[in-house]
Amino acid sequence: MGPVCMVLLVYLLYTPCWWLTALYCLWLLLDWESHKQAGRRFECVRNWQAWTYMRDYFPIRLVKTCALSPDKNYIFGYHPHGIFCFGAFCNFGTEANGFSRKFPGITPYVATLSGNFLLPIARDYIMSAGVCPVTHDTLDFLLSSNGVGVAVVIAVGGAAEALSTSPGSYRVTLRNRKGFIRKAIKHGAALVPTFSFGESDTYSQVELAEDSWGRRLQTRLQKILGFAICLIKGCGLFSPDSWGIMPYARPITTVVGEPITVPQMSEPSPEVVDRYHTLYMEELQRLFDREKTRHGLKHTDTLLIQ
């Protein structure tokens, strides 16, 4: 959406409607910092009927395992990242599966790359759904200056995990990801492990060998751009048996686990961070093992935390 909108704005400069681009650029100048404080959230956008079509295409479900108190703040660790985080956006960025009814008093914010907010028009669109940049300033603002009942959803594995995504595999990049644990302890926000069964099945991907020049190029571009350039294959628009860029219609079930209470410490020691990081990994493993057979996996399927 972002590149298309950029081309459209440039095109309008050479038409009698040039003033539309000029007005938007003025608005962009005045509004440039809004996303750093979670932007403008519109419930009417989150409740669009279009999101139910997205939900039903896969389909996508949201499973609640326990109640969450609206008197606390939370960091939801979303696993796995998959290619496009369809489950995260549908369940937490929209009301297609009734998040507000299942978790009354909790306001979710889906954290994503700050680079997405450089794209004209698209930035306003995603802000209206409650999407925010995954930066220190924004997370600190949401967890300390926005009251209670805030849930920040972070796809912990990020771009690195996207590169290792393949159908039928259950690998999460987590063992060395401790920043979200440190952030939770700093603000006393409970940690909520969340696993999305089927998120990795929406696309096939050409996985390059770790020592190949292609994989080194992917890794290099990931570090420069902040997101992964994945060689994906989906299905065609009109036939599930043809090749295309549409995602496969595979069920995605997002299971929200039980919260892990953490102490509030402005400067947590590495030992404290490691303790709760280990506890979080153990709880995620238990969540996967407990729920896997209920959502299409075999008893022998295992979760690899790398």
Helical residue percent band? 25-40%
The averaged pLDDT comes out at: 90
Rg, rounded, reads: 20 Å
Could you give the count of β-strands?
12
Description:
- By secondary structure, the chain is an alpha/beta fold.
- Helix content is 37%, strand content 17%.
- It contains twelve helices and twelve strands.
- It has helices spanning 2-12, 18-30, 43-46, 50-57, 86-92, 99-102, 122-128, 136-144, 158-163, 179-187, 213-225, 270-291; strands at 60-64, 74-79, 107-112, 131-133, 150-155, 171-172, 190-197, 204-205, 232-235, 243-244, 252-256, 304-305.
- It has a seven-stranded mixed beta sheet, with helices on both faces. A three-stranded antiparallel beta sheet has the order 8-9-10, with no helix packed on it. It has a two-stranded parallel sheet with strand order 6-12.
- α1 crosses α2.
- The protein starts with a helix and ends with a strand.
- The mean pLDDT is 90.
